[in-house]
Amino acid sequence: MATPTVAGALNEQNASRFVVAGALAPALYDIRASRLRALPGLVEVHADPVRFRAAADPRARGLHLSCGAALFNLRLSSAQVGYEPVVRLLPDRGHPTLLASVRLAGPRRSHPEERLLYATSLRPLPGRQPYGDQRPPLPVLQELQEAVRLEGATLHLLPRSGGPQTAAIATSGDGPSAWLRAGQALQSLLLHGAVRAVSVSFLYEVSRVPRALEALQPGEVPQVAVDLARTGL
């Protein structure tokens, strides 16, 4: 049972929630090159150089995207154990494998939407091929755009006639911190989509979707290409 102190929040049972949350984040290239370290009142997300396959991801961009997705799950887990998560990206330049930290900053209650998203995060999500062939309704797409915006990214809807809605997640600028933000936005999109009966397939290789470049604003960089399909009526 967790004690009233923040430092005591990460008992064995609660720490296991963070491990599960990180493990269920999406990854391509069959990479699971991250590891979580639980400290008093803090969870750190590290790159694991032993498991990282540089040949498949030479810039470690996919690694950062996947770790960003794990980071979003960790934030949900923090709310479930009753603490406000405070995230720092790339908190220590002297330790380049330390990609992010989540500090448990004080007691709080999780919101119904967070509890629903957390429950959804514990189920495997489709990651490559969408099921369903209908474009989601515009109000739902707008809700998904808002979910991505709250993570510091933009979801651009691309022109398409029929079938799923093609879109791209973009960030202002590029580099490790932008990749981590895009990963959090991707996981938010996956979970909010699942709650709204929308499947989300994704590719980190945005170059395969040339139309993504046409939708960008000055200074934006496309990070993830997605297809959004309605799965139920």
CATH homologous superfamily label of the largest domain: NADH Oxidase
**Which regions are unreliable across 5 or more consecutive residues at pLDDT < 50?**
1-8
Q: What's the overall geometry? A: globular
Give the topology string: H per helix, E per strand: HEEHEEHHEEHEHE
Number-wise, the strands total 8
Task: Give the DSSP E fraction (strand runs of 2 or more residues).
Answer: 15-25%
Whole-Å distance between the termini? 42 Å
Q: Helicity level, as a percent range? A: 25-40%
Explain this structure to me?
- It is a single chain.
- By secondary structure, the protein is α+β, with helices and mostly antiparallel strands.
- The protein folds into 2 domains: 7-121, NADH Oxidase, CATH 3.40.109.10; 138-230, NADH Oxidase (3-Layer(aba) Sandwich).
- It has helices at 12-23, 61-80, 112-121, 138-149, 176-195, 211-214; strands spanning 34-39, 42-47, 83-89, 98-107, 154-157, 165-172, 198-203, 220-230.
- The strands form 2 sheets. It has a 4-stranded antiparallel sheet, covered by helices on one side. Strands 5-6-8-7 form a 4-stranded antiparallel sheet.
- A hairpin with a 2-residue loop joins strand 1 and strand 2.
- The chain starts with 11 loop residues before the first helix and ends with a strand.
